[in-house]
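Subject: Sanity check before I submit

Could someone independently write out the structure tokens for this chain? I want to compare against mine line by line before I put it in a report. The sequence has 228 residues.
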Amino acid sequence: MFWPETPKQEAAVIPDEVTDIAYQIRCQTLPVDHAWALSQAVRAVLPWLESEPGAGVHTIHVADSGNGWMRPAGADDLLHLSRRTKLQLRVPRHRIDDAMRLIGQVLDVAGHAMTIDKAALKPLSSLTTIFSRYVVSAAGQDENAFLAAQVRELEGMGIQPKRMLCGIEHRLATPDGPVRTRSLMIADLSPPESVRIQQRGLGPLRLLGCGLFLPHKDIKELNPPQGR
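---
Independent answer below. Compare away.
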């Protein structure tokens, strides 16, 4: 855990050089580990994503629990998507029109049909706590080494992180072998810092959803454990 105390900073206007696009979809189920399959399906329609450094494909996440249902943990288990589930891409502004070509397509995601309906822009957030479910971790990196690596990358952006918390290691399956990742929450950023990280991301493999940050409203779980 990396947790020094510093005061919050001032708000800022949100630039629009990079934005998320949220697509309404019709898709009943997806494997829990669908990052590679989803990336391949989207890139088949939008091949330019590969060459856009600001572009990414968010993995699809559903609620951990609800109405007696618990989110499955196995990579091959199935997620059951609701009508409100969205597919989200992160794209630079000049690619917004190109990304709309996805509308009307039927994607094959690991054998599961996903029909893409209408889309809406979803601007980045100025909230000062952000979260990524997957940030690539080097082989053998423990929690402290992982956090130190993220600090170095953030400092390269001109950002001195104040509070960060990472999760346990999680692996994403690819044809070249598993990709090691950890979740990462960053708190007490200034609004411009938050937007900068959302625009650039951390680490590689944005098209697998890695290093893409979303706003996080509830920071109660960020309270350090007693005695630390």
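---
OP: Matches mine. For the report I'm noting this point. The radius of gyration is 18 Å.
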